[in-house]
Every structure is written in C-alpha cells, then in structure tokens.
Design goal:
By secondary structure, the protein is of the alpha/beta class. The protein is built from eight helices and eleven strands. Helix 1 links the parallel strand 4 and strand 5. Helix 3 packs parallel to helix 4 and helix 7 runs parallel beside helix 8.
Length: about 290
C-alpha cells in the first residue's frame, strides 16, 4: 500500500509511516503546512493508471479519485472531440500528451533522431499540435527515439536538435511547449536522450523558451541518481515533473526512493507546476493512491 501521511489540524505534525518493510528506514515528521497551502499538485497519467477500464472511462475514474488534471501518451485512435467531452464532463484539465511515436510494433519509441524520416516527423508534430489545440493542452512531449545503427552520433545530435527546434517553432505559433524527456537505458536501450545533463545541453543549445525538460524521478534514479541535485540543476529548464518508484515503476512507497524527501525538494525548489503520477500500480489503481496527501 506504500506509505500514508496522516494529517491532523494545521500546525501539528504529519507522521509518514512505512507500511512496507523496506519502503523507508524510519518514519519522518513534517509540518502540516507542507501539505496544505504548499501542497504539490498531482495529475494522473491515464495511459498507465486506471487501466482496469477502457481509456475513455478513465477520465471519470480519475475525477472520482480526486484528480483535477490528467495526462496521457497517445490519444490518436480517439477523436479529439470525444476526449474533450470527457475532460469537460469530469471538469479535468489536460496537462500533456505525447507526439506520435512512429511504428511501435517495429521498435519505434519516437522518431526525432531519424535523419531519413523528417517528413514523417513534421507530420507527426502537426497532428500532435492539432490534438493539443483541440484539447487545450499546453505540453507536447516529443520523444527522441533510437537512432539507426548506421547513423553517426554527430548526425543524430544535429538531426535531433533541428527537429526539436522545428517542433518548438511550430508549437510557439499556437502557444504550446515542447517537452523532452531522458529515458533510462534499462527500460529503453539505445534511446538517444538518457541523462539530465544531455537534456540541459539541448535546451541550452536550442535556446527557445518553449523547449522544456520533463523531469521523471523514476528515470533519473534508474539512470544516474542524485534526484535532488539533478532537480536543482535542471530547474530552470523543467516544464513538467513525473513520479514513480524504482525498481518496478510502482507507486511511491513500493521501492527505494525516499519520496518524502523528494516531495520536499520539489516544494522547496519553487516548482509550481503539476506532478504527474506515471506509475504502474502494484495494487488496484484506486488503492495505489494511499500514499497521496489528501
């Protein structure tokens, strides 16, 4: 079940108790104000949460669980008008969506690094921005992908930066932000973007205000650790944060990450955006939310 915060009256303490033997070494206490006026805002990634029901029914489940915002990966098999109707009916804000990934069955997980697929890439950005506009969604995640074996590192980096710049220029015309996200090499072998330092270098090189980093706590811990230090270093470029525990990518409290510490680091950083729950529930989706301050 993870860990559960117990909140008493304002000004008293919240004791975070370990409910799994290895979740935390000991319980920790925090001022209640940490989870009141300064509470983090959590959104539900309904591509992997609430999968007990079909996609179009997950908006209702997220709203009933208390979420005010959702995000998802690839909505393109559904009409944007139908998705918008579910968002409106459930009074939900859409935080982010992914651009088309290419042909997943052929091994694609993004095509931004492919020198010979730039026409396909540009068409995918147009489609993603159409959906983002129709759904009042501010963020579009553009995945790098795995470069072809015959393509040099120099060509790959140049093509990737050129494509992200193109996507950002198109997104700026309609007031949208392009997100880039380092993915860990265990889950995504060969994926071009895997570290926060690389993401920062790209954002700095492109130097457009609507190119931002999606800071995924799970991927950071899997690849390089030092979550708080990386958070602080990437903070000027961060456009969105996501969470999952590791190993296993479960909900907070199912692995080794000290989430009270991480949440406090995010709060102290001044980050005011949404924190996306992009994890695979170890129990039913609703039960997996026991960790969340209410």
């Amino acid at each position: 079940m993870g860990w559960r915060s117990r909140m008493a009256d304002r000004g008293t303490a919240i004791t975070v108790e370990p409910l799994l033997q290895n979740s935390f070494a000991a319980s920790r206490s925090y001022s209640a104000s940490h989870y009141t006026s300064a509470m983090l805002k959590f959104s539900a990634n309904i591509s992997i949460l609430f999968t007990e029901v079909p996609f179009m029914q997950r908006f209702d489940m997220a709203a009933r669980a208390g979420f005010k915002a959702v995000e998802f990966w690839f909505p393109y098999e559904f009409a944007s008008a139908d998705i918008r109707a579910e968002l409106t009916r459930n009074n939900l804000q859409l935080i982010g969506l992914n651009a088309p990934p290419g042909t997943v069955s052929a091994g694609d997980w993004g095509i931004a690094v492919h020198a010979l697929r730039q026409t396909e890439f540009r068409e995918s950005i147009a489609l993603a921005l159409d959906y983002a506009n129709a759904l009042s969604c501010g963020n579009v995640h553009v995945m790098a992908g795995v470069p072809p074996a015959e393509q040099s590192a120099e060509t790959t980096e140049q093509v990737y930066q050129d494509n992200i710049r193109f996507a950002a220029e198109q997104a700026a015309l309609v007031g949208k932000t392009i997100l880039i996200e380092p993915l860990n090499p265990v889950d995504r072998p060969g994926y071009w973007l895997s570290t926060q330092a690389h993401a920062r270098a790209i954002a700095t090189a492109i130097a457009l205000p609507n190119v931002k980093i999606m800071f995924d706590v799970y991927h950071v811990q899997m690849t390089e650790g030092r979550i708080a230090a990386n958070l602080q270093a990437s903070l000027p470029h961060i456009g969105h944060i996501q969470i999952a525990d590791m190993p296993g990518r479960g909900e907070p409290g199912t692995g080794e990450i000290n989430f009270p510490f991480v949440f406090e680091a995010i709060r102290r950083s001044g980050y005011a955006g949404w924190v996306g729950c992009e994890y695979k529930p170890s129990v039913g989706s609703e039960h997996s939310l026991a960790w969340m301050p209410r």
